[in-house]
Amino acid sequence: MSSGVTVAVVGATGAVGETTLKLLEQRRFPVKSLHAYASERSVGKTVTFSGESMPVEKLGPSSFKGIEMAFFSAGAAQAKEFAPIAAAAGAAVIDKSSAFRMDPKVPLVVPEINAHALRGHEGIISCPNCTTIITVMPLKPLHEAGRLRRVVATSYQAVSGAGVKRIEELRVQTQAWARGEKIEPKYFVDQIAFNLIPHTDPFGPDGYTGEEKKLINEVRKILELPNLAISPTTVRVPVFTAHSIAINAETELPISPAREVFRQFAGLQVWDTPEQNRYPCRSQSKARTTASWAASARICRIPVR
């Protein structure tokens, strides 16, 4: 790490922070030096990056001196408090929480779709919700080919999206079920092992949960379609990692064949040969994981101020 960018990862010990470190390493991001930040209870722990063990530092107002790029992998509360401080110190902030997604001054970016939104950013760049990203990827080429009119989307969300404690809860409950023991929900509102539950966000007066409203609002912002009709349903499923989503999209113009539209869009892979039992599932995706990441989420150049 002798040349490149000085990077900070906030929330480095959480599920998102750990994945951020792995992706920076796998994609050979030009890191000159890296600082791993977390809350006080994580101080004393270490994280690994490029074969080196690095101490976890306590996050504070003075943490961003000399930082050029800061990845915020913590919650919205920490992002709201510290992301403006990091930006004011001169860092380009990439925030993975919901803190700034709907702020009109903050670009909400999926690089393959709206990288142009990065131009003129004011120091903070927001990442969409996990299911939003996999929703807009096929919707963008469909809109370009036939102009979207209506979208019905149902997501099947793994427990990883709720954090490391929920991942552990699924593991513990599954083991308890196998032993015939009583299952006690701890972090989820109900048993998650061998069960399906509505998303844990509160339901609003319109009948949609907070997670479903995120999908509506974020898809509209990214695609720059403020009036697009979207009806989402989110379900938490007993899967450790990897969200899935089923989409029914209606366009103003006919599209045929849709598979060719998807094949020609950078970042999408068509993996659908039912007659050969080839379709997206864990057993068929292990060998393609790294290649799929590289194809579906390329690093976008972000101007560092």
Q: Count helical runs.
A: 9
The appropriate CATH architecture of the largest domain is 2-Layer Sandwich
- Give the overall silhouette: globular
Measured distance between first and last alpha carbons: 21 Å
Q: What is the CATH top level name of the largest domain?
A: Alpha Beta
Report mean pLDDT, rounded to a whole number: 88
> SSE string, helix = H, strand = E?
EHEEEEHEHEHEHEHEEHHH
Which topology of the largest domain does CATH recognise? Dihydrodipicolinate Reductase, domain 2
| Overall number of domains | 2
Q: Sheet with the most strands?
A: 7 strands, mixed
Describe the protein.
The chain has about 300 residues and is α/β, with parallel strands linked by helices. The chain folds into 2 domains: about 5-100, Rossmann fold, CATH 3.40.50.720; about 130-295, Dihydrodipicolinate Reductase, domain 2 (2-Layer Sandwich), CATH 3.30.360.10. The protein has 9 helices and 11 strands. It has helices at about 15-25, 75-90, 110-115, 130-145, 165-180, 210-225, 260-265, 280-285, 290-295; strands at about 5-10, 30-40, 45-50, 50-60, 70, 90-95, 125, 150-155, 195-200, 230-235, 245-250. The strands form 2 sheets. It has a 7-stranded mixed beta sheet, sandwiched between helices. Strands 9-10-8-11 form a 4-stranded mixed beta sheet. Helix 3 links the parallel strand 6 (about 90-95) and strand 7 (about 125). Helix 4 packs across helix 6. It is globular. The chain starts with a strand and ends in a 9-residue tail after the last helix. Residues about 285-305 have low confidence and may be disordered.
